[in-house]
Design goal:
four-stranded mixed β-sheet; mainly alpha; 4 strands; 26 helices
Protein backbone atom coordinates (compact mmCIF):
# COMPACT_ATOMS: atom_id res chain seq x y z
CA UNK A 1 0.00 0.00 0.00
CA UNK A 2 2.86 2.40 0.74
CA UNK A 3 4.29 1.67 -2.68
CA UNK A 4 0.93 2.49 -4.25
CA UNK A 5 0.82 5.76 -2.33
CA UNK A 6 4.28 6.65 -3.60
CA UNK A 7 3.27 5.84 -7.14
CA UNK A 8 0.20 8.02 -6.86
CA UNK A 9 2.33 10.90 -5.63
CA UNK A 10 3.86 11.06 -9.10
CA UNK A 11 0.48 11.90 -10.64
CA UNK A 12 0.33 15.35 -12.24
CA UNK A 13 -1.05 18.29 -10.32
CA UNK A 14 -4.57 19.44 -11.10
CA UNK A 15 -3.13 22.72 -12.36
CA UNK A 16 0.09 24.66 -12.29
CA UNK A 17 -1.22 27.84 -10.73
CA UNK A 18 0.20 29.81 -13.66
CA UNK A 19 -2.41 32.53 -13.20
CA UNK A 20 -0.35 33.95 -10.32
CA UNK A 21 3.43 34.03 -10.34
CA UNK A 22 5.38 32.77 -7.36
CA UNK A 23 6.78 36.26 -6.87
CA UNK A 24 3.29 37.80 -6.77
CA UNK A 25 2.07 35.12 -4.39
CA UNK A 26 4.99 35.70 -2.03
CA UNK A 27 4.38 39.45 -2.02
CA UNK A 28 0.73 38.83 -1.24
CA UNK A 29 1.70 36.51 1.59
CA UNK A 30 4.09 39.12 2.97
CA UNK A 31 1.33 41.72 3.06
CA UNK A 32 -1.00 39.34 4.90
CA UNK A 33 1.61 38.16 7.34
CA UNK A 34 2.49 41.76 8.24
CA UNK A 35 -1.03 42.11 9.63
CA UNK A 36 -0.89 38.78 11.45
CA UNK A 37 2.33 39.83 13.20
CA UNK A 38 0.31 42.69 14.70
CA UNK A 39 -2.47 40.39 15.87
CA UNK A 40 -2.46 40.11 19.66
CA UNK A 41 -3.00 36.37 19.25
CA UNK A 42 0.38 35.99 17.52
CA UNK A 43 2.94 34.38 19.83
CA UNK A 44 6.65 33.86 19.26
CA UNK A 45 7.29 31.09 21.75
CA UNK A 46 10.78 29.77 21.07
CA UNK A 47 10.12 26.36 22.64
CA UNK A 48 6.84 25.53 20.91
CA UNK A 49 7.96 27.23 17.72
CA UNK A 50 11.08 25.09 17.49
CA UNK A 51 9.09 21.90 18.09
CA UNK A 52 6.49 22.61 15.39
CA UNK A 53 9.02 24.03 12.92
CA UNK A 54 11.20 20.91 13.20
CA UNK A 55 8.24 18.71 12.27
CA UNK A 56 7.41 21.02 9.40
CA UNK A 57 11.00 21.22 8.12
CA UNK A 58 11.15 17.42 7.89
CA UNK A 59 8.01 17.47 5.73
CA UNK A 60 9.40 20.22 3.50
CA UNK A 61 12.57 18.19 2.99
CA UNK A 62 10.53 15.11 2.12
CA UNK A 63 8.49 17.14 -0.36
CA UNK A 64 11.71 18.32 -1.99
CA UNK A 65 13.15 14.80 -2.22
CA UNK A 66 9.92 13.37 -3.66
CA UNK A 67 9.67 16.07 -6.31
CA UNK A 68 6.53 17.63 -4.86
CA UNK A 69 8.30 20.90 -4.09
CA UNK A 70 9.49 22.77 -7.16
CA UNK A 71 12.91 24.46 -6.80
CA UNK A 72 11.37 27.84 -7.61
CA UNK A 73 8.84 27.49 -4.80
CA UNK A 74 11.50 26.33 -2.38
CA UNK A 75 13.64 29.36 -3.14
CA UNK A 76 10.96 32.05 -3.26
CA UNK A 77 8.55 31.02 -0.50
CA UNK A 78 8.96 31.61 3.22
CA UNK A 79 8.16 28.11 4.64
CA UNK A 80 7.47 29.66 8.00
CA UNK A 81 5.11 28.61 10.79
CA UNK A 82 3.29 31.25 12.82
CA UNK A 83 1.72 30.27 16.13
CA UNK A 84 -1.54 31.80 17.32
CA UNK A 85 -2.63 31.83 20.95
CA UNK A 86 -6.21 31.14 19.86
CA UNK A 87 -7.88 28.23 21.69
CA UNK A 88 -9.77 27.02 18.63
CA UNK A 89 -8.57 23.94 16.75
CA UNK A 90 -7.28 25.34 13.50
CA UNK A 91 -4.39 25.47 11.05
CA UNK A 92 -4.21 27.14 7.66
CA UNK A 93 -1.97 27.79 4.70
CA UNK A 94 -1.42 31.28 3.34
CA UNK A 95 0.03 32.60 0.08
CA UNK A 96 3.79 32.62 -0.19
CA UNK A 97 4.51 29.60 1.99
CA UNK A 98 3.29 30.91 5.33
CA UNK A 99 1.35 28.64 7.68
CA UNK A 100 -0.67 29.34 10.79
CA UNK A 101 -1.16 26.92 13.67
CA UNK A 102 -3.38 27.69 16.64
CA UNK A 103 -2.30 26.53 20.07
CA UNK A 104 -5.75 24.96 20.29
CA UNK A 105 -4.71 22.44 17.65
CA UNK A 106 -1.46 21.53 19.40
CA UNK A 107 -3.43 21.11 22.62
CA UNK A 108 -5.62 18.30 21.18
CA UNK A 109 -3.28 16.28 18.96
CA UNK A 110 -2.39 12.98 20.59
CA UNK A 111 0.99 12.43 18.94
CA UNK A 112 3.58 14.21 16.84
CA UNK A 113 2.35 12.09 13.93
CA UNK A 114 -1.15 13.57 14.18
CA UNK A 115 0.26 17.09 14.21
CA UNK A 116 2.54 16.24 11.29
CA UNK A 117 -0.46 14.99 9.29
CA UNK A 118 -2.13 18.41 9.57
CA UNK A 119 1.10 20.17 8.62
CA UNK A 120 1.60 17.80 5.67
CA UNK A 121 -1.91 18.50 4.41
CA UNK A 122 -1.45 22.27 4.64
CA UNK A 123 2.02 22.07 3.07
CA UNK A 124 0.57 20.18 0.13
CA UNK A 125 -1.99 22.90 -0.51
CA UNK A 126 0.97 25.21 -1.14
CA UNK A 127 3.23 22.84 -3.08
CA UNK A 128 0.34 21.97 -5.40
CA UNK A 129 -0.39 25.70 -5.96
CA UNK A 130 -3.97 25.43 -4.69
CA UNK A 131 -3.80 28.88 -3.14
CA UNK A 132 -2.54 30.44 -6.37
CA UNK A 133 -5.49 28.99 -8.27
CA UNK A 134 -7.96 30.21 -5.66
CA UNK A 135 -6.40 33.65 -5.78
CA UNK A 136 -6.70 33.67 -9.55
CA UNK A 137 -10.47 33.57 -9.10
CA UNK A 138 -10.16 37.07 -7.63
CA UNK A 139 -7.59 38.17 -10.17
CA UNK A 140 -9.24 41.52 -10.82
CA UNK A 141 -8.69 42.60 -7.24
CA UNK A 142 -5.56 44.42 -6.13
CA UNK A 143 -3.11 42.49 -3.92
CA UNK A 144 -4.13 44.67 -0.98
CA UNK A 145 -7.79 43.77 -1.49
CA UNK A 146 -6.91 40.09 -1.83
CA UNK A 147 -4.96 40.30 1.40
CA UNK A 148 -7.89 41.92 3.18
CA UNK A 149 -10.18 39.17 1.91
CA UNK A 150 -7.92 36.42 3.21
CA UNK A 151 -7.67 38.16 6.58
CA UNK A 152 -11.45 38.35 6.59
CA UNK A 153 -11.65 34.64 5.94
CA UNK A 154 -9.29 33.96 8.82
CA UNK A 155 -11.45 36.11 11.07
CA UNK A 156 -14.46 34.09 9.94
CA UNK A 157 -12.74 30.89 11.04
CA UNK A 158 -12.35 32.32 14.54
CA UNK A 159 -15.53 34.35 14.87
CA UNK A 160 -18.25 34.57 12.20
CA UNK A 161 -19.56 37.68 13.94
CA UNK A 162 -16.21 39.42 13.67
CA UNK A 163 -15.94 38.47 10.02
CA UNK A 164 -19.29 40.05 9.24
CA UNK A 165 -17.90 43.34 10.46
CA UNK A 166 -15.10 43.02 7.90
CA UNK A 167 -17.27 42.07 4.95
CA UNK A 168 -19.28 44.52 2.89
CA UNK A 169 -21.83 43.82 0.17
CA UNK A 170 -20.81 41.54 -2.65
CA UNK A 171 -17.39 40.79 -1.12
CA UNK A 172 -18.96 38.69 1.62
CA UNK A 173 -19.25 35.51 -0.44
CA UNK A 174 -15.73 35.84 -1.79
CA UNK A 175 -14.31 36.29 1.70
CA UNK A 176 -16.24 33.32 3.00
CA UNK A 177 -14.96 31.06 0.24
CA UNK A 178 -11.41 32.41 -0.10
CA UNK A 179 -9.77 29.69 1.99
CA UNK A 180 -12.28 26.94 1.29
CA UNK A 181 -10.53 24.55 -1.06
CA UNK A 182 -12.49 22.44 -3.52
CA UNK A 183 -13.11 18.76 -2.81
CA UNK A 184 -10.59 17.82 -5.49
CA UNK A 185 -7.98 20.05 -3.88
CA UNK A 186 -8.68 18.56 -0.46
CA UNK A 187 -8.27 15.03 -1.79
CA UNK A 188 -5.06 15.96 -3.57
CA UNK A 189 -3.66 17.56 -0.40
CA UNK A 190 -4.58 14.37 1.47
CA UNK A 191 -2.86 12.18 -1.11
CA UNK A 192 0.31 14.24 -1.40
CA UNK A 193 0.48 14.92 2.34
CA UNK A 194 0.06 11.24 3.17
CA UNK A 195 2.95 10.44 0.83
CA UNK A 196 5.22 12.80 2.77
CA UNK A 197 4.67 11.22 6.17
CA UNK A 198 6.88 8.13 6.07
CA UNK A 199 9.79 9.76 4.16
CA UNK A 200 9.75 12.58 6.74
CA UNK A 201 10.01 10.12 9.62
CA UNK A 202 6.37 10.11 10.73
CA UNK A 203 3.91 7.24 11.02
CA UNK A 204 1.30 7.50 8.22
CA UNK A 205 -1.24 6.17 10.74
CA UNK A 206 -1.15 9.67 12.20
CA UNK A 207 -3.21 10.82 9.23
CA UNK A 208 -5.94 8.30 10.02
CA UNK A 209 -5.85 9.05 13.74
CA UNK A 210 -6.28 12.76 13.06
CA UNK A 211 -9.12 12.12 10.62
CA UNK A 212 -10.87 9.97 13.22
CA UNK A 213 -10.47 12.76 15.75
CA UNK A 214 -11.90 15.31 13.33
CA UNK A 215 -14.78 13.00 12.45
CA UNK A 216 -15.65 12.57 16.11
CA UNK A 217 -15.65 16.34 16.59
CA UNK A 218 -17.87 16.68 13.52
CA UNK A 219 -20.37 14.21 14.96
CA UNK A 220 -20.49 16.15 18.19
CA UNK A 221 -21.84 19.10 16.25
CA UNK A 222 -19.06 21.65 15.93
CA UNK A 223 -19.71 24.45 18.39
CA UNK A 224 -17.15 26.82 16.93
CA UNK A 225 -14.09 25.41 18.66
CA UNK A 226 -13.09 23.39 15.57
CA UNK A 227 -12.94 25.94 12.71
CA UNK A 228 -10.62 23.54 10.89
CA UNK A 229 -13.73 21.53 10.07
CA UNK A 230 -15.29 24.51 8.32
CA UNK A 231 -12.31 25.39 6.13
CA UNK A 232 -11.46 21.68 5.54
CA UNK A 233 -14.83 19.88 5.64
CA UNK A 234 -14.60 16.10 5.98
CA UNK A 235 -16.30 13.77 3.53
CA UNK A 236 -16.86 10.04 3.80
CA UNK A 237 -14.74 9.63 0.66
CA UNK A 238 -11.75 11.41 2.23
CA UNK A 239 -12.04 9.40 5.43
CA UNK A 240 -12.37 6.10 3.58
CA UNK A 241 -9.43 6.97 1.33
CA UNK A 242 -7.12 7.58 4.30
CA UNK A 243 -8.21 4.36 6.02
CA UNK A 244 -7.71 2.44 2.78
CA UNK A 245 -4.11 3.59 2.48
CA UNK A 246 -3.08 1.92 5.74
CA UNK A 247 -2.29 -1.82 5.38
CA UNK A 248 -4.42 -4.11 7.50
CA UNK A 249 -1.33 -5.46 9.24
CA UNK A 250 0.17 -2.02 9.96
CA UNK A 251 1.29 -1.58 13.57
CA UNK A 252 -0.73 0.58 15.88
CA UNK A 253 0.32 4.19 16.25
CA UNK A 254 3.09 4.48 18.83
CA UNK A 255 2.28 6.31 22.06
CA UNK A 256 3.13 9.98 22.30
CA UNK A 257 6.66 10.84 23.37
CA UNK A 258 7.17 12.61 26.68
CA UNK A 259 8.43 15.65 24.79
CA UNK A 260 5.22 15.82 22.76
CA UNK A 261 3.10 15.58 25.89
CA UNK A 262 5.10 18.42 27.40
CA UNK A 263 4.45 20.55 24.31
CA UNK A 264 0.73 19.77 24.51
CA UNK A 265 0.75 20.91 28.14
CA UNK A 266 2.67 24.05 27.17
CA UNK A 267 0.14 24.92 24.47
CA UNK A 268 -2.74 24.50 26.89
CA UNK A 269 -1.19 26.79 29.49
CA UNK A 270 -0.10 29.46 27.00
CA UNK A 271 -3.62 29.62 25.56
CA UNK A 272 -4.43 31.63 28.70
CA UNK A 273 -7.45 29.60 29.79
CA UNK A 274 -7.80 31.74 32.93
CA UNK A 275 -6.55 31.92 36.51
CA UNK A 276 -9.03 29.33 37.77
CA UNK A 277 -7.86 26.77 35.22
CA UNK A 278 -4.21 27.49 35.94
CA UNK A 279 -4.86 26.91 39.63
CA UNK A 280 -6.61 23.62 38.88
CA UNK A 281 -3.57 22.44 36.93
CA UNK A 282 -1.25 23.64 39.68
CA UNK A 283 -3.19 21.62 42.25
CA UNK A 284 -3.51 18.44 40.14
CA UNK A 285 -0.24 16.78 41.29
CA UNK A 286 -1.51 17.00 44.86
CA UNK A 287 -4.54 14.82 44.06
CA UNK A 288 -4.82 11.52 45.90
CA UNK A 289 -3.41 8.69 43.83
CA UNK A 290 -1.39 10.98 41.56
CA UNK A 291 1.81 9.00 42.14
CA UNK A 292 0.07 5.84 40.87
CA UNK A 293 -0.85 7.39 37.52
CA UNK A 294 1.06 6.34 34.39
CA UNK A 295 4.29 8.21 33.78
CA UNK A 296 3.01 10.09 30.68
CA UNK A 297 0.05 11.47 32.65
CA UNK A 298 2.32 12.60 35.46
CA UNK A 299 4.74 14.31 33.09
CA UNK A 300 1.89 16.20 31.41
CA UNK A 301 0.47 17.27 34.77
CA UNK A 302 3.85 18.28 36.25
CA UNK A 303 4.68 20.43 33.21
CA UNK A 304 1.26 22.12 33.21
CA UNK A 305 1.51 22.72 36.96
CA UNK A 306 4.97 24.26 36.73
CA UNK A 307 4.18 26.56 33.81
CA UNK A 308 0.84 27.53 35.38
CA UNK A 309 2.68 28.54 38.53
CA UNK A 310 5.03 30.66 36.43
CA UNK A 311 2.03 32.38 34.85
CA UNK A 312 0.55 32.95 38.30
CA UNK A 313 3.80 34.40 39.62
CA UNK A 314 4.35 31.69 42.23
CA UNK A 315 8.00 30.60 41.84
CA UNK A 316 8.09 28.38 44.94
CA UNK A 317 5.18 26.28 43.65
CA UNK A 318 6.75 26.23 40.18
CA UNK A 319 10.06 24.92 41.56
CA UNK A 320 8.26 22.19 43.47
CA UNK A 321 6.44 21.08 40.32
CA UNK A 322 9.67 21.23 38.33
CA UNK A 323 11.37 18.86 40.78
CA UNK A 324 8.57 16.35 40.24
CA UNK A 325 8.86 16.79 36.46
CA UNK A 326 12.63 16.27 36.50
CA UNK A 327 12.26 13.05 38.45
CA UNK A 328 9.69 11.66 36.00
CA UNK A 329 11.55 12.56 32.78
CA UNK A 330 14.92 11.18 33.89
CA UNK A 331 16.47 9.05 31.16
CA UNK A 332 14.56 10.68 28.27
CA UNK A 333 17.01 13.12 26.66
CA UNK A 334 14.45 15.21 24.74
CA UNK A 335 12.17 15.49 27.77
CA UNK A 336 15.09 16.31 30.07
CA UNK A 337 16.04 19.18 27.75
CA UNK A 338 12.51 20.54 27.84
CA UNK A 339 12.52 20.39 31.64
CA UNK A 340 15.77 22.36 31.72
CA UNK A 341 14.37 25.00 29.39
CA UNK A 342 11.32 25.26 31.62
CA UNK A 343 13.60 25.64 34.63
CA UNK A 344 15.46 28.50 32.95
CA UNK A 345 12.17 30.15 32.04
CA UNK A 346 10.98 29.75 35.62
CA UNK A 347 14.09 31.34 37.12
CA UNK A 348 14.05 34.24 34.66
CA UNK A 349 10.45 34.94 35.66
CA UNK A 350 11.53 34.77 39.31
CA UNK A 351 14.38 37.22 38.69
CA UNK A 352 17.20 34.74 39.39
CA UNK A 353 19.43 35.04 36.32
CA UNK A 354 22.31 32.92 37.73
CA UNK A 355 19.92 30.01 38.39
CA UNK A 356 18.54 30.35 34.86
CA UNK A 357 22.07 30.24 33.44
CA UNK A 358 22.76 27.09 35.43
CA UNK A 359 19.84 25.30 33.77
CA UNK A 360 20.96 26.55 30.35
CA UNK A 361 24.54 25.45 30.92
CA UNK A 362 23.30 21.96 31.75
CA UNK A 363 21.29 21.98 28.52
CA UNK A 364 24.30 23.10 26.46
CA UNK A 365 26.46 20.34 27.93
CA UNK A 366 23.79 17.70 27.34
CA UNK A 367 22.94 18.66 23.76
CA UNK A 368 26.33 19.86 22.57
CA UNK A 369 24.84 23.17 21.43
CA UNK A 370 27.43 25.90 21.21
CA UNK A 371 30.32 23.52 20.59
CA UNK A 372 32.39 23.82 17.44
CA UNK A 373 30.27 22.84 14.44
CA UNK A 374 27.13 22.29 16.53
CA UNK A 375 23.93 23.96 15.32
CA UNK A 376 22.42 26.82 17.25
CA UNK A 377 19.38 26.00 19.39
CA UNK A 378 17.09 28.99 19.35
CA UNK A 379 15.39 28.50 22.76
CA UNK A 380 18.71 28.21 24.60
CA UNK A 381 20.16 31.16 22.70
CA UNK A 382 17.28 33.53 23.46
CA UNK A 383 16.90 32.46 27.09
CA UNK A 384 20.65 32.73 27.68
CA UNK A 385 20.69 36.20 26.12
CA UNK A 386 17.97 37.40 28.49
CA UNK A 387 19.72 35.89 31.51
CA UNK A 388 23.07 37.48 30.61
CA UNK A 389 21.42 40.83 29.90
CA UNK A 390 20.04 40.80 33.44
CA UNK A 391 23.47 39.91 34.74
CA UNK A 392 25.08 42.74 32.78
CA UNK A 393 27.33 40.30 30.91
CA UNK A 394 25.66 39.78 27.53
CA UNK A 395 28.78 40.52 25.46
CA UNK A 396 29.39 36.83 24.83
CA UNK A 397 26.03 36.55 23.03
CA UNK A 398 26.99 39.00 20.27
CA UNK A 399 28.69 36.40 18.08
CA UNK A 400 26.04 33.65 18.53
CA UNK A 401 23.22 36.05 17.71
CA UNK A 402 25.02 37.43 14.65
CA UNK A 403 25.77 33.91 13.45
CA UNK A 404 22.14 32.93 13.87
CA UNK A 405 20.85 36.04 12.08
CA UNK A 406 23.19 35.46 9.16
CA UNK A 407 21.08 32.41 8.27
CA UNK A 408 17.78 33.55 9.86
CA UNK A 409 17.50 37.24 8.90
CA UNK A 410 13.73 37.13 9.39
CA UNK A 411 13.94 36.41 13.11
CA UNK A 412 12.65 39.66 14.60
CA UNK A 413 12.96 38.41 18.18
CA UNK A 414 16.66 37.64 17.69
CA UNK A 415 17.20 41.10 16.18
CA UNK A 416 15.55 42.67 19.23
CA UNK A 417 17.77 40.58 21.52
CA UNK A 418 20.86 41.70 19.60
CA UNK A 419 19.70 45.32 19.91
CA UNK A 420 19.55 44.89 23.69
CA UNK A 421 23.00 43.33 23.74
CA UNK A 422 24.51 46.16 21.71
CA UNK A 423 22.76 48.74 23.88
CA UNK A 424 24.32 47.15 26.95
CA UNK A 425 27.71 47.33 25.23
CA UNK A 426 27.26 51.09 24.74
CA UNK A 427 26.94 50.74 20.97
CA UNK A 428 23.72 52.70 20.35
CA UNK A 429 24.13 52.99 16.59
CA UNK A 430 24.32 49.22 16.14
CA UNK A 431 21.39 48.83 18.55
CA UNK A 432 19.26 51.18 16.44
CA UNK A 433 20.12 49.26 13.28
CA UNK A 434 19.12 45.98 14.92
CA UNK A 435 15.81 47.52 15.99
CA UNK A 436 15.25 48.60 12.39
CA UNK A 437 16.06 45.11 11.09
CA UNK A 438 13.50 43.69 13.52
CA UNK A 439 10.86 45.88 11.88
CA UNK A 440 12.00 44.75 8.44
CA UNK A 441 11.58 41.15 9.56
CA UNK A 442 7.95 41.99 10.44
CA UNK A 443 7.47 43.67 7.04
CA UNK A 444 6.75 46.97 8.78
CA UNK A 445 8.86 48.97 6.39
CA UNK A 446 7.57 52.37 7.55
CA UNK A 447 8.70 51.69 11.12
CA UNK A 448 12.02 50.36 9.83
CA UNK A 449 12.63 53.53 7.82
CA UNK A 450 12.00 55.60 10.94
CA UNK A 451 14.59 53.61 12.90
CA UNK A 452 17.18 53.76 10.12
CA UNK A 453 16.68 57.53 9.93
CA UNK A 454 17.12 57.71 13.69
CA UNK A 455 20.40 55.89 13.17
CA UNK A 456 21.47 58.44 10.58
CA UNK A 457 20.68 61.28 12.97
CA UNK A 458 22.66 59.54 15.72
CA UNK A 459 25.65 59.12 13.41
CA UNK A 460 25.56 62.80 12.38
CA UNK A 461 25.54 63.90 16.01
CA UNK A 462 28.69 61.91 16.59
CA UNK A 463 26.97 59.50 18.95
CA UNK A 464 28.45 56.57 17.07
CA UNK A 465 31.99 57.36 18.18
CA UNK A 466 33.17 57.39 14.61
CA UNK A 467 31.61 54.06 13.61
CA UNK A 468 31.67 54.93 9.92
CA UNK A 469 31.20 51.35 8.73
CA UNK A 470 27.99 50.99 10.72
CA UNK A 471 26.76 54.37 9.47
CA UNK A 472 27.42 53.25 5.90
CA UNK A 473 25.46 50.04 6.46
CA UNK A 474 22.54 52.06 7.79
CA UNK A 475 22.60 54.35 4.73
CA UNK A 476 22.56 51.36 2.39
CA UNK A 477 19.81 49.53 4.26
CA UNK A 478 17.70 52.70 4.45
CA UNK A 479 17.72 53.07 0.67
CA UNK A 480 16.82 49.41 0.22
CA UNK A 481 13.92 49.53 2.69
CA UNK A 482 12.64 52.83 1.29
CA UNK A 483 12.41 51.08 -2.07
CA UNK A 484 10.46 48.23 -0.47
CA UNK A 485 8.13 50.74 1.19
CA UNK A 486 7.42 52.43 -2.14
CA UNK A 487 6.73 49.07 -3.73
CA UNK A 488 4.41 48.20 -0.87
CA UNK A 489 2.54 51.50 -1.29
CA UNK A 490 2.20 50.93 -5.02
CA UNK A 491 0.27 47.71 -4.40
CA UNK A 492 -2.51 49.57 -2.63
Amino acid sequence: MFGAAQAQSALPMMGDGAEMTTSAERKLGDSIIRELYRDPDYIDDAVLGEYVQQLFNALVQAAKERGELAPELQERFAWEILLGRDRTVNAFALPGGYFGVHLGLIAVVGTRDELASVLAHELSHVTQRHIARLMAQQGRQTPLMLGAMVLGALAASKSPGAAQALMVGGQALAVQNQLNFSRDMEREADRVGFGLMQPAGFAPQGFVAMFDKLQQANRLNDNGSWPYLRSHPLTTQRIADMHGRIPADAPALAPASLEHLMMVARARVLMRPGVDTWRQWLAEPRDAGFAARPRPERVTAWYAACLSAVQLGEPAAARQALRGLQADVAGDAAAVRQARLLGAELELAAGDAPAALSYLQDSVVATGAGQAGAPQRRPEMLLRTQALLRSGAATEMTAPLQTWLATHPGDATAWQALAQVWQQQKQPLRAVRAEAEAQVARYDYAAAVDRFKAGQDLARRGGAAGDYIEASIIDTRLRAVQSLLKEQAAQR
